[in-house]
């Protein structure tokens, strides 16, 4: 087997474990770490480009209607103002992940409050921002903007094909134990620390853009399509990305506007979204209303399972928050109803935010599961253990490797879980009720086509190149480790270069598929290089042992540089997902255990302990994988307790479009996080036996916190986030 | 930010001259620059008063005089304030972050403006920002808004913590007038209720500059600052309470309570203090205090919860401050 | 007028609207200091001015004539990391890296504040010596948001440096 693979069946060869270097999985420091901690890593807006003009977007102040006129004269004479751009090529929305084509343009047709309308370009940022505030825009406002998901005249459509098996109503009515509840979640914002930013340069034939993006191979096409260029004439550079969490999957309005301005003005233009604009015009996670119906027999085994959700998006968007994604495969129940309804609202585009689907679906499901466990009177861990299906409950296909039971047990042991005979309000410390809760973690495994180039140089060092990005996930680290393991090199002798669209197209960072997909491409390229080395040594590839820069065949050891004899070997690995995903239900699993304190007077909830045990196939780097899990758990704390992007029900604007009032967790909100990595190899997941880990840590985490709140003080809330006012309202006399 | 003329004053006279001509004093700038970037504040001229000698914390007889330019950090770290006025140190430390408190000054903090979402959105009607335009918080999302002392024109809250403690301590604001005189205003009377002029947060007149805050003689007793907020740090108060209570032989000898997050000003109700004095602490007494405090409280929808939250938080604070536990 | 940044003099003669943050990033090409929100709500722009940590987005460059500014570039270099920088790498106290320079500048100032016995909101006593418990570190670092969620590792990194210094 060489350079390319379409994954149609499991790869049981488990090659990485047979390698000799011993670096795969090791908790090595990130090679990009020193650049990041010294401030020398340059992010998109930070390139010193000569004669760079500054642009600031002007956004709509109505929710629906038309821009009748843009009064350029109102700013033209302001100091430093160069141009007002409201080109028909400008985009009114960000691109959805993987779109590969321009998002909706026509910025003069306003469909949500905050929609980009124009770009003001000036010599300095202060001049541009000031002029952007002064630019007069005349609107004709429509009076039929749809803003409230629950208002009666909002158009609602069923998204995709619902799953309907058996008779859930009947199962519920005849069940020994049944839970029928509705949970809600509010809109979330990805809020990466680096706002979306682009510097565009145009030399008359090629458009070069430093931009903060997650998936360059799609982004090139999106940008080229938007501005009317051939994709070959567009180059994107994103070697460092200051967080994405889905909001940088597709091109966003600032990059297109900067590009158009650069092409029109013949000089470089930088556009950085104001923090408020990150809330107003990039991407929100949809609010959700989730009806959960669980029917269990007398042993606590699920016989009926219903998960139906109402979500929202702008007219014309095909994305609907896939709330039931894990419900599809996680638990049994022959009587099943899964369904997503989509309301069309005039609110900023809804799209992927870290773990779309499971992030909000799992926290509601796991709340309902806790309610069921209480009803049955069994340990909630035991309820989960009794409900691990043998085959996919709807598709009747096998699971790939699945460590759910192991995670439940390992997490419970590490945490010191006592699940028997739970009843709330058992522990009080001063003003605080103390309780514990748990939840399952599950996130579907995704793969994407990916290429990567690996070059083995005559001196025995190597380089990996792909347009893949590292958005903090550790891509630089793990791709280097895969190549080092496969080629028998010190990790420091492998240079990884990413985030340049002129490199072979990787998977992009999204859906937790980056490492398993692009990593597989690196693996395949290395396999091909090994085959060529073997040919030089007159042996089969499998006979070759590579370690510390030496090749050993049948007891004979040769320095790689002597094998190469001044040549370099270069291979491009090409990985395709193939049919494997139709043959196996593959997912990452885990379990959360947490201890929460609730103030008996004020309803403030604080997470005091938080353990997560996770199984996601082979761990490529124990340090960065642990960090990914921790990050997800922090998001879980935000989702449980503090985060909600609020829209004014009358005007449709974001009420809290900043980091003062949109409350992402701060350091004090987060206790020491305890992460257990459960050893696993999943041959159906990828040739690396690895799955993804960037999102798993959030999927269910907030459910565990909600369950702990219930255990602490007896308050069962179903409308996330559980802010003090909501908890307090249900508390008894302190 | 709109362009402005920048001048630096090196003494109070110079600062007063420039402010009389319409320049806005800037010290820490942590609130003013935030608002200027959004063009909620659009001064034509700034006078940088950081080098005016208004720093230092100095005793004046039994009193303690905190210079206008003393940073929040320096104030909270001062040994005398930590020892004799712990409620003030606690309140300051409950607000913002170390970074912000290193810049934010005593006078600037008193003058910080509301965090009302609609005040911050220049596209929305707001009587505080644009008198006569209306109040879009009424009927809107008003979770952080006032339940006491609001008007039809404005339901914004004063967002700070420090001033709540200063109210409990009954401190005095020392002001240099445009004419070169000095006048003193109790902190309890410094901030205004919105009435029909919510554009005025406080009683400062044009051209006036705060020069100091004066703390009365140490009140003794037990000091508590309780802040209820959405996240455990770096968030504005939903409800906060500063309490200074001295017990004598099982009864409350003196009590001074002030409340944040409830009104357009740090809320002080002397009837509540008076009710407590001379009484033996009991839940019934605390309920009566809450009844009195919240008599006339009115929610506006999303902030209705503040009424029971104030009641419950008051009970927690009074139990703590009158209890034996040290 | 001029500012002394990392020991070097930088003349400032621009628009008075220029924040210290934009002056550092645009005029001095010291892009290690990050702009995350531009409104004092995230801490990514934290630098030390005259030894104290501040949000450089909420102050004007023109207000700092003659003052001494230390940015992340002034703490250490790739070949000669400051102990905090090295500890952040070792403990993976970052992911995307964008909040990291602010976190490290903040941590440096925090250790000095604690050495000067400055209390915090979570200090049990306002008198006596400041002991940096994990909760004290968390509260004192709460002015630096990390959306990637590296807080637990950030605390570990700081604890290691603190313990080594003691």
TrEMBL record, chain A:
- SUPFAM superfamilies linked: CO dehydrogenase molybdoprotein N-domain-like (SSF54665), Molybdenum cofactor-binding domain (SSF56003)
Q: What InterPro entries has UniProt attached to this entry?
A: Ald_Oxase/Xan_DH_a/b, Ald_Oxase/Xan_DH_a/b_sf, Ald_Oxase/xanthine_DH-like, AldOxase/xan_DH_MoCoBD1, AldOxase/xan_DH_MoCoBD2, AldOxase/xan_DH_Mopterin-bd_sf
Ranges for the Aldehyde oxidase/xanthine dehydrogenase a/b hammerhead domain? Answer: 38-143
Q: Which Pfam families match?
A: Ald_Xan_dh_C, MoCoBD_1, MoCoBD_2
Query: Any idea which GO molecular function terms this record carries?
Result: iron ion binding; oxidoreductase activity
| The protein's name in its UniProt record | Periplasmic aromatic aldehyde oxidoreductase, molybdenum binding subunit YagR
From TrEMBL, chain B:
SUPFAM superfamilies with a match to the protein in the record: CO dehydrogenase flavoprotein C-terminal domain-like (SSF55447), FAD-binding/transporter-associated domain-like (SSF56176)
Q: Name one Pfam family in it.
A: CO_deh_flav_C
The reply to whether Mitochondrion figures as a keyword in the UniProt entry is no
Q: Alphabetically list the UniProt keywords.
A: FAD, Flavoprotein
Which molecular function terms from Gene Ontology are attached?
FAD binding; oxidoreductase activity
Q: Which part of the chain is the FAD-binding PCMH-type domain?
A: 1-220
Q: What's the superkingdom here? A: Bacteria
Q: Which InterPro entries match?
A: CO_DH_flav_C, CO_DH_flav_C_dom_sf, Diverse_Substr_Oxidored, FAD-bd_PCMH, FAD-bd_PCMH-like_sf, FAD-bd_PCMH_sub1, FAD-bd_PCMH_sub2, Mopterin_DH_FAD-bd
Name used for this protein in its record: Periplasmic aromatic aldehyde oxidoreductase, FAD binding subunit YagS
Q: In which organism is this protein found?
A: Pacificimonas flava
Q: What is the lineage of its organism?
A: Bacteria, Pseudomonadati, Pseudomonadota, Alphaproteobacteria, Sphingomonadales
TrEMBL record, chain C:
Q: Where is the 2Fe-2S ferredoxin-type domain?
A: 1-75
Task: Name the source's superkingdom.
Answer: Bacteria
What the entry lists under PROSITE patterns is as follows: 2FE2S_FER_1 (PS00197), 2FE2S_FER_2 (PS51085)
Keyword Metal-binding assigned to the entry: answer is yes
Membrane spanning stretches: none
- Keyword Iron-sulfur tagged: yes
Q: Which CDD domains match?
A: fer2
Gene3D superfamilies, per database record = 3.10.20.30, [2Fe-2S]-binding domain
InterPro entries from the entry?
A: 2Fe-2S-bd, 2Fe-2S-bd_dom_sf, 2Fe-2S_ferredoxin-like_sf, 2Fe-2S_ferredoxin-type, 2Fe2S_fd_BS, Aldehyde_Oxdr_Iron-Sulfur, Beta-grasp_dom_sf
| Swiss-Prot/TrEMBL keywords | 2Fe-2S, Iron, Iron-sulfur, Metal-binding, Oxidoreductase
What terms describe the molecular function in GO for this protein?
Answer: 2 iron, 2 sulfur cluster binding; metal ion binding; oxidoreductase activity, acting on the aldehyde or oxo group of donors
**Under which name does UniProt file this protein?**
Periplasmic aromatic aldehyde oxidoreductase, iron-sulfur subunit YagT
């Amino acid at each position: 087997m060489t350079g390319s693979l379409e994954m149609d069946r499991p790869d049981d060869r488990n090659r990485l474990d047979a390698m000799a270097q011993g670096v795969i999985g090791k908790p090595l420091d990130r090679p990009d770490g020193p650049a990041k901690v010294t401030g020398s890593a340059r992010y998109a807006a930070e390139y010193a480009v000569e004669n760079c003009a500054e642009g600031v977007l002007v956004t709509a102040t109505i929710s629906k209607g038309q821009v009748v006129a843009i009064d350029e004269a109102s700013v033209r004479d302001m100091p430093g103002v160069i141009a007002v751009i409201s080109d028909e090529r400008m985009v009114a929305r960000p691109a959805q992940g993987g779109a590969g084509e321009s998002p909706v343009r026509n910025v003069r047709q306003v469909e949500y409050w905050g929609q980009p309308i124009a770009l003001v370009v000036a010599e300095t940022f202060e001049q541009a921002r000031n002029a952007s505030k002064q630019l007069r825009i005349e609107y004709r406002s429509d009076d039929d903007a749809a803003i409230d998901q629950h208002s009666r005249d909002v158009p609602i459509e069923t998204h995709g094909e619902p799953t309907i098996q058996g008779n859930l109503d009947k199962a519920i009515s005849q069940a020994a134990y049944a839970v029928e509840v509705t949970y809600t979640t509010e809109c979330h914002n990805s809020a990466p620390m680096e706002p979306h930013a682009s510097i565009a340069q145009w030399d008359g034939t090629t458009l070069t853009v430093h931009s903060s993006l997650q998936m360059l191979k799609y982004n090139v096409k999106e940008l080229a399509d938007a501005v009317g260029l051939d994709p070959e004439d567009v180059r994107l550079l994103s070697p460092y990305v200051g967080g994405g969490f889905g909001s940088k999957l597709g091109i966003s309005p600032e990059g297109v506007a900067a590009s158009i301005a650069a092409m029109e003005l013949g000089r470089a233009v930088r556009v950085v979204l104001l923090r408020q604009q990150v809330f107003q015009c990039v991407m929100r996670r949809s609010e959700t209303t989730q009806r959960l119906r669980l029917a269990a027999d007398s042993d606590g085994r699920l016989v009926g399972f219903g998960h139906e959700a109402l979500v929202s998006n702008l007219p014309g968007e095909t994305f609907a928050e896939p709330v039931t994604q894990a419900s599809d495969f996680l638990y049994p129940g022959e009587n099943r109803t899964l369904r997503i309804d989509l309301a069309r609202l005039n609110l900023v585009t809804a799209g992927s935010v870290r773990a779309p689907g499971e992030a909000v679906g799992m926290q509601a499901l796991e709340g309902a599961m806790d309610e069921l466990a209480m009803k049955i009177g069994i340990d909630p861990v035991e309820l989960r253990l009794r409900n691990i299906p043998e085959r996919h409950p709807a598709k009747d296909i096998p699971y790939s490797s699945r460590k759910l039971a192991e995670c439940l047990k390992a997490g419970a042991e590490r945490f010191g879980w006592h699940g028997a005979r739970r009843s709330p309000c058992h522990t009080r410390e001063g003003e605080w009720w103390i309780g514990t809760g748990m939840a399952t973690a599950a996130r579907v495994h995704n793969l994407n086509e990916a290429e990567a180039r690996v070059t083995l140089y005559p001196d025995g060092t190597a380089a990996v190149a792909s347009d893949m990005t590292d958005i903090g996930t550790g891509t630089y680290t793990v791709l280097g480790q895969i190549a080092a393991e496969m080629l028998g090199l010190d990790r420091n002798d492998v240079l990884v270069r990413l985030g340049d669209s002129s490199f072979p197209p990787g998977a992009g960072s999204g859906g937790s598929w980056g490492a398993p997909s692009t990593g597989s491409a690196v693996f395949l390229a290395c396999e091909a290089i090994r085959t060529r080395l073997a040919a030089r040594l007159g042996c089969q590839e499998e006979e070759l042992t590579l370690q510390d820069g030496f090749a050993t065949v049948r007891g004979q050891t040769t320095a790689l540089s002597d094998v190469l004899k001044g040549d370099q070997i270069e291979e491009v690995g090409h990985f395709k997902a193939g049919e494997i995903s139709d043959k196996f239900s593959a997912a990452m699993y885990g379990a959360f255990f947490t201890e929460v304190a609730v103030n008996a007077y004020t309803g403030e909830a604080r997470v005091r302990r938080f353990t997560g045990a996770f199984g996601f196939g082979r761990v490529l780097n124990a340090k960065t994988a642990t960090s990914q899990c921790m990050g997800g758990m922090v998001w879980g704390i935000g989702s449980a307790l503090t985060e909600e992007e609020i829209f004014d029900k009358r005007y449709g604007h974001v009420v809290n479009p900043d980091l003062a009032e949109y409350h992402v967790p701060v350091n004090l909100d987060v206790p020491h996080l305890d992460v257990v990595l459960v050893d696993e190899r999943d041959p159906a997941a990828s040739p690396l036996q690895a799955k993804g880990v960037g999102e798993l840590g959030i999927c269910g985490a907030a459910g565990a916190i909600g369950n702990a709140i219930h255990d602490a003080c007896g308050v069962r809330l179903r409308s996330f986030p559980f802010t003090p006012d909501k908890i307090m309202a249900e508390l008894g006399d302190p | 930010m709109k362009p402005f003329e920048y001048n630096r004053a090196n003494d109070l006279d110079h600062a007063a001259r420039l402010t009389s001509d319409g320049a806005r004093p800037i010290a820490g700038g942590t609130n003013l620059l935030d608002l200027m970037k959004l063009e909620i504040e659009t001064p034509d001229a700034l006078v940088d008063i950081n080098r005016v000698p208004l720093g230092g914390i100095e005793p004046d007889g039994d009193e303690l005089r905190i210079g206008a330019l003393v940073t929040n950090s320096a104030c909270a770290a001062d040994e005398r304030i930590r020892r004799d006025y712990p409620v003030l140190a606690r309140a300051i430390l409950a607000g913002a972050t170390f970074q912000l408190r290193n810049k934010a000054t005593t006078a600037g903090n008193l003058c910080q403006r509301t965090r009302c979402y609609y005040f911050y959105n220049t596209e929305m009607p707001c009587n505080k920002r644009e008198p006569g335009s209306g109040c879009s918080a009424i009927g809107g999302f008003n979770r952080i808004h006032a339940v006491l002392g609001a008007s039809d024109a404005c339901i914004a809250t004063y967002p700070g913590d420090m001033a709540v403690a200063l109210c409990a301590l009954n401190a005095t604001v020392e002001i240099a007038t445009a004419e070169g005189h000095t006048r003193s205003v109790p902190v309890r009377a410094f901030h205004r209720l919105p009435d029909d002029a919510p554009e005025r947060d406080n009683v400062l007149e044009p051209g006036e500059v705060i020069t100091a805050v004066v703390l009365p003689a140490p009140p003794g007793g037990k000091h508590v600052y309780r802040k209820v907020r959405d996240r455990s740090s770096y968030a504005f108060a939903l409800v906060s309470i500063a309490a200074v209570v001295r017990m004598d032989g099982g009864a409350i000898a003196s009590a001074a309570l002030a409340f944040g997050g409830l009104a357009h000003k740090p809320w002080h109700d002397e009837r509540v203090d008076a009710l407590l004095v001379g009484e033996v602490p009991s839940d019934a007494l605390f309920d009566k205090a809450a009844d009195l405090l919240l008599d006339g409280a009115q929610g506006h929808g999303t902030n209705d919860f503040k009424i029971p939250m104030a009641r419950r938080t008051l009970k927690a604070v009074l139990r703590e401050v009158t209890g034996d536990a040290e | 007028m001029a500012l002394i940044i990392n020991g070097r003099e930088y003349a400032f003669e621009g628009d008075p609207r220029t924040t210290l943050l934009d002056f550092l990033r645009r005029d001095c090409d010291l892009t290690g200091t990050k702009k995350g929100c531009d409104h004092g709500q995230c801490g990514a722009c934290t630098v030390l001015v005259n030894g104290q940590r501040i949000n450089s987005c909420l102050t004007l460059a023109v207000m700092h004539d003659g003052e001494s500014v230390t940015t992340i570039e002034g703490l250490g270099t790739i070949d000669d990391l400051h102990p905090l920088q090295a500890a952040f790498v070792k403990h993976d106290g970052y992911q995307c890296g964008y909040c990291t320079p602010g976190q490290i500048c903040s941590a440096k100032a925090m250790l000095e504040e604690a050495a000067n016995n400055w209390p915090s909101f979570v200090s049990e006593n306002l008198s006596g010596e400041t002991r940096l418990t994990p909760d004290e570190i968390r509260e004192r670092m709460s002015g630096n948001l990390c959306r990637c969620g590296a807080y637990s590792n950030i605390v570990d990194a700081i604890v290691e440096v603190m313990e080594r210094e003691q």
